[in-house]
Design goal:
By secondary structure, the protein is of the alpha/beta class. The protein folds into two domains: about 270 residues, Spore Coat Polysaccharide Biosynthesis Protein SpsA, Chain A (Alpha-Beta Complex); about 120 residues, UDP N-Acetylglucosamine Acyltransferase, domain 1. Helices cover about 25% and strands about 25% of the residues. The protein has twelve helices and 31 strands. Strands 1, 4, 5, 6, 8, 9, 10, 11 and 12 form a nine-stranded mixed β-sheet that branches. The C terminus is likely disordered.
Length: about 425
């Protein structure tokens, strides 16, 4: 693995995750309270023994770069040839931004060449899974392959219009490839399933450079691995599939593309189950991230009508549940749930403040949002839409950093100012509503 370089494609815009991606790239979106989505690919690299990593960014990458710097760079020793470098678009070759996955790697050939590695592992930074890339590199070497593609066994109904689908022979050699077909080719002997590309590739490095240079000059190319590069080489070069070997140690393999708000919500909610499908408490394949230096989570007040408690939930460091109730939810760092508030089946990012008597149900609330006292979210979807919140097809309410809350605060402040002028100070609604 000392002869392998990992290239993590982390420049995704994540349009379908809007509004969570308005201020951050998709790989930087929080997951499971303590993690970012990119932490899964990065942990896989570290656990697999890959210690040369380039993270290619493009879209709103400030928080992602900061996270890599704080949480990941200390695992690598530059003097020993180890590194994890965040590489923004260099525009060394032309003045265009990245026009596809292959073009993103092509524009960084200069940086990759300096490492003189024999193998290049190309990864997407926006999927949730646990995988040993060492086994895939070993398979690539054993097959004397030019390219090895990570293959996920997927029901045919789910693969239509969604994945690149491979045809393979008895020796796992790829003999056909279609990008997002309407009628995917089934696995021989397994008619209900097909092999979908995971967007994980192991290339022999010199071969990769040759193909990228050819693709860059090919008229009409979209400069994408799945749409252009792979179909052009399967008949002339040694291309093999590597079936996904899961390190999650559960009955069924776990791989999730959390590219939509509903998929993202369901993947997070799985974590609060008694026996979740994704095991994040696995010492044999640990997940690493940046952990801020904060005090432990705290639960205060024990009266029957004012008891701070959380059930079937994940509560991260620095959070305080102060006389409120939390059920089947994920609370990020420095979250505050004030007295008599209720949070059900929700995801609260870091710094969220839930005011007294507020009620939150089936919601995702972005970082540092302050919910006013008595506010309700998720109980009247038409009202939620009128306030400017996003409501998904499955009824999950998503509140971005400034979605309607600031305007609501302003209207409340104006109303309370009028009331304070008309009433004695001890009847001020501000005093009653203060968290």
């Amino acid at each position: 693995m000392k002869d392998a370089l990992a290239v993590v494609l982390a420049g995704g815009k994540g349009v379908r995750l809007d509004p969570l991606t308005r201020d951050r790239a998709k790989p930087a979106v929080p997951f499971g309270g303590a993690y970012r989505i990119i932490d899964f690919s990065m942990s896989n690299c570290l656990n697999s023994g890959i210690r040369k990593i380039l993270v290619l960014t493009q879209y709103k990458a400030a928080s992602l770069a900061r996270h890599i710097q704080l949480g990941w760079q200390h695992y690598f020793c530059r003097e020993l040839g180890e590194f994890t470098d965040v590489v923004p678009p260099q525009q060394r070759i032309d003045e265009h931004w990245y026009r596809g996955t292959a073009d993103a790697v092509y524009q960084n050939i200069y940086t990759m060449e300096k490492e003189h590695t024999r193998h290049t592992v190309i990864l997407a930074g926006d999927h949730i899974y646990k995988m040993n890339y060492r086994k895939m590199v070993e398979s690539h070497v054993d097959h004397r392959a030019d390219l090895t593609i990570g293959a996920l066994r997927v029901p045919i109904a789910e693969a239509r219009y969604r994945f690149g689908v491979m045809e393979i022979d008895a020796d796992d050699r790829v003999v056909g490839f279609e990008e997002k077909p309407a009628d995917p080719k089934p696995i021989p002997g397994d008619p209900g399933y097909c092999y979908a590309s995971m967007g994980i590739y192991v290339f022999t490095t010199r071969f990769l450079f040759e193909q990228l240079c050819q693709d860059a000059t090919r008229p009409g190319s979209s400069h994408d691995f799945g749409a252009d590069v792979i179909p052009s080489i399967i008949r002339t070069h040694r291309v093999f599939a590597h079936p996904f070997l899961d390190e999650n140690r559960k009955e069924s393999a776990y791989w999730r593309d959390v590219g939509t708000l509903d998929a993202y919500y369901e993947a997070n909610m799985d974590l609060v189950a008694v026996d979740p499908q994704l095991n994040i408490y696995d010492d044999q394949w640990p997940l690493r991230t940046y952990q801020p230096n904060l005090p432990p989570a705290k639960f205060v007040f024990a009266a029957e009508d004012r008891r701070g408690h959380a059930m079937d939930s994940i509560v991260c460091v620095g959070s305080i549940v102060s006389g409120g109730q939390v059920r089947r939810s994920i609370l990020g760092t420095k979250v505050r749930v004030n007295s008599y508030a209720r949070v059900d089946e929700s995801i609260l990012f870091g710094g969220v403040d839930i005011g007294r008597h507020a009620k939150i149900r089936r919601a995702i609330i972005d970082k540092d949002v302050s919910i006013p006292a008595g506010f309700e979210v998720g109980y009247d979807h038409e009202l939620d839409r009128q306030r400017g919140f996003t409501v998904t097809d499955r009824g999950v309410v998503v509140i971005a950093k400034a979605d309607g809350i600031e305007n609501y605060h302003a209207s409340v402040d104006q109303a309370e100012t009028r009331d304070a002028l008309a009433e004695p100070p001890h009847f001020s609604r501000r005093a009653v509503a203060r968290p």
